[in-house]
Design goal:
Elements: E1 2-11, E2 14-24, E3 29-33, H1 40-47, E4 55-60, E5 63-64, H2 70-75, E6 77-80, H3 92-96, H4 98-102, H5 107-120, H6 137-149, E7 155-159, H7 167-179, H8 181-184, E8 187-192, H9 195-201, E9 204-209, E10 212-217, H10 219-224, H11 229-236, H12 239-246, E11 267-269, H13 274-283, E12 288-293, E13 297-302, H14 303-319
Parallel strand pairs: 3-8, 3-9, 6-7, 7-8, 11-12
Antiparallel strand pairs: 1-2, 1-4, 4-5, 9-10, 12-13
Helix pairs in contact: 9-12
The structure holds adenosine-5'-diphosphate and magnesium ion.
Adenosine-5'-diphosphate is lined by residues 11, 14, 16, 34, 36-42.
Length: 320
């Protein structure tokens, strides 16, 4: 759906973005990951033409965006700015209504859609007349998201949307983010410098450094097929946690035995990751869990079987 081809952006002598290419499929969540200054924001802003590339081209649904009016282009693209970008002198309701007013929606349509989003994002309607600085960081981020979603654009660009939040708030917003139906239908490009966040939310990740893409692939590609030491070192500190998050129970399915016990163990889907599987043992008294694949196959396993399959999987990856 989005195709970025050989784009560069030079600011004087600085090559902020240096000949990068990537594609994003419809409804996919692509993460641009990298340390500060590696060119993430510049890349994102070229996609909605807030910045014009020095060279290269970008296509959305096959159309070269250079041939479109920037205003028309941006109507199809929601944008969540770094540090939420809310207008401090507008109320919450006025902030959310910015785009609908440009689109000349009538008052009732704006009010209805705003109420719908406030509910979906777990925000009390009491806040509609508050100003952004009267809200917590997490609430401000949700309003920023509501503003980007209000006209239901097919594409969403998000620049460090959860960057300013404390860890607890961030974890709970991640959960909501993954559960929100409206977001599942969208093609999303999200910028972050946080590896855990990238692995938590990304279908695919482009790891960037000094204006270039060092690797693009799924979280497991980055973990088990890194092209060089830069990628390895980038993931080093948090490697085990990242592996638990990246590997799904489905990936190790063939390595799992079935204990054939009939007990009341909690059932989880094979589509969830290993992390979630391990959490089950923490939160329940059961010594086993059932994993269901495609709703018809079930395996009952214990903690030992799970860890053993995980280790076998990792050994196999190393030898491929
Ligand atoms: N308007 C600008 N003028 C000059 N240099 C810029 C400008 N915007 C960004 N840069 C430089 O380009 C590089 C990439 O910036 P940016 O895309 O904001 O990185 P990131 O979002 O990954 O932190 C940095 O070295 C930054 O200083
Ligand atoms: Mg940035």
């Amino acid at each position: 759906m989005i195709k970025v081809k050989d784009i560069s952006k030079h600011f004087g002598k600085v090559k902020a973005v240096d000949t990068i290419s990537f594609e994003v499929q419809e409804q996919e969540n692509l993460i641009l990951l990298g340390t500060s200054g590696c060119g993430k924001t510049t890349t994102l802003k070229m996609i909605n033409r807030l910045i014009e590339p020095t060279s290269g081209s970008i296509f959305i649904n096959g159309k070269n965006i250079a041939d479109e009016q920037p205003e028309t282009l941006r109507r199809g693209i929601g944008y969540v700015l770094q540090n939420n970008g809310l207008f401090p002198h507008y109320t919450v309701a006025e902030n959310i209504a910015v785009v609908p007013q440009l689109l000349k929606w009538d008052k009732k349509k704006i009010a209805d859609r705003t109420a719908e989003l406030m509910e979906k994002l777990h925000l009390s309607s009491d806040y509609l007349h508050a100003y952004p600085n009267e809200l917590s960081g997490g609430q401000q981020q949700r309003i920023g998201l509501a503003r980007a979603l209000v006209s239901d654009p097919p594409v969403l660009l998000m620049d460090e949307p959860f960057g300013a939040l404390d860890n607890v708030t961030r974890a709970s917003i991640h959960k909501e983010f993954k559960a929100l139906d409206e977001l599942k239908r969208k093609t999303i490009i999200m910028v972050t410098h946080d590896v855990q966040e990238a692995f938590e939310l990304g279908d695919r990740i482009c790891l960037m450094d000094k204006g270039k893409i060092i690797q693009s692939g799924t979280p497991t590609d980055l973990l088990f097929s890194p092209p060089n030491n830069f990628v390895k070192d980038f993931l080093k500190d948090q490697r085990l946690q990242l592996e638990f998050k990246a590997i799904r129970l489905l990936d190790i399915w063939d390595l799992l035995p079935d204990l054939h016990k009939t007990d009341q163990s909690p059932t989880i889907s094979a589509n969830t990751n290993l992390w979630t599987g391990l959490e089950q043992f923490k939160f329940t008294d059961s010594e086993t869990i059932s994993i269901s694949k495609d709703q018809n196959e079930i395996k009952i396993i214990g903690f030992e079987q799970l860890m053993s399959a995980f280790n076998q999987y990792k050994n196999k990856q190393g030898h491929e």
